[in-house]
Amino acid sequence: MTERELDAAGITDPVLREAYDHCRRLNARHGRTYFLATRLLPVERRPAVHALYGFARWADDIVDALGTGADTARRDAELAALERELAKGLRDGESAEPVVRALADTARRYGIDHAHFADFMTAMRSDLVVTDYADYAALRRYMHGSAAVIGLQMLPVLGTVTDRGTAAPHAAALGVAFQLTNFLRDVGEDLDRGRVYLPADLLAAHGVDRERLRWSRDTGRRDPRITSALRAFERLTRGVYRQAAPGLAMLEPVSRPCIRTAFVLYGGILDAVAEDGYAVLHRRSVVPRRRRAVVAADGLARVAAARLRARSAAARGTEQAPLTAPEPVEPRMVEEVA
Q1: How far is CA 14 from CA 125, 258, 329, in A?
Q2: pLDDT at 322 exceeding the cut of 90
Q3: Left if phi > 0, otherwise alpha if psi is -120 to 50, otherwise beta: which for 93?
Q4: Is residue 330 pLDDT above 60, yes or no?
């Protein structure tokens, strides 16, 4: 199906096609929930999403290079090299790195503000030295670069029915909501990396600190104070989802099923954490396969409805129909989503 996506997007250069395919493989391997949602987009828009995700994944992997012997200085040097390659790619469209080549092409095609990529790299550098956050305001400053700008990068690809400035705060909020969800799900794994993303003042309000989290992670024992703090963080996260929700209707109709599916699937992770008793320090909570299948099926139904409305509008001469139709999501894909 990769060839169909690239053909539909008008990407003909063989080297560039390989670069986009490389990004797609990264998305399929590491971002399986979002990869499923991306399959609900019209095919010509998917390569851009894969490029944006692939670049973010690559930078994040450099930061989280645990077990590879890469110390902070080495990772800092690798991020600096990536920044130089990114600047060159955005400037002249050329790069020896497939991910940067695809990203630069996507930025050019969709007119994505280069400042979003600079802000993202600043956040990645922060992760090398900052291991906790005093309060939610400090965490939000970090998440502007690590999450909000991802939503802003995506917005030109998805398209809007309002002016982009009106939709932008909701797109940024959705990026933050997704990252907060990951922070809650991955508390134990992040702690093993030496990081605590839950704000220190929120933890302290429930009688919890880093040492208490470490004790629970190491011993496998539960503490009601930790459960209370995690529940409070879940409530905070759900509030950000509510801020993001109005933005779904501001997207172009053909993009809404994709983002709504991601919205529901990521929100389902919060449900899974709660149903699992907030045991995130001891195991990863996952959305059951049956629930994922239901969400995917609903997404397909919404794609079909959007296509029908677009064709009807085109027949009336009021709106241009999508260039190509989204392909079906195979049952195997639904089963594989983590």
Answers
A1: 33, 28, 27
A2: no
A3: left
A4: no
Give the range with max mean pLDDT: 74-83, 173-182, 261-270: 173-182
User: What would the two tokens of residue 151 be?
Assistant: 């939503």
**DSSP per residue, 245-303:** GGGGGGB-TTTHHHHHHHHHHHHHHHHHHHHTTS-TTTS-----HHHHHHHHHHHHHHH
Percent of the chain with pLDDT over 70: 82
Contact between 45 and 84 under an 8 Å Cβ cutoff? The reply is no
Residue 135, SS3? Answer: coil
Confidence of residue 23 (pLDDT cuts 50, 70, 90): very high
Q: Which of 192, 66, 81, 76 is nearest to 129 (CA)?
A: 76
pLDDT of 67 over the 50 cut: no
Percentage of the chain with pLDDT > 90? Answer: 70
The span from the CA of 240 to the CA of 178, in Å, is 9
Residue 160 has phi, psi (to 5 degrees) of -135, 160
Question: Cα separation of 27 and 187, whole Å?
Answer: 23
Per-residue H/E/C for 307-321: HHHHHHHHHHCCCCC
CA 78, 81, 82: angle at the middle one, nearest 5? 90
Q: Which of 156, 144, 128 is nearest to 52 (CA)?
A: 156
Q: What is the DSSP letter of 111?
A: T
The dihedral through the CA atoms of 245, 23, 47, 86 has a sign that is: positive
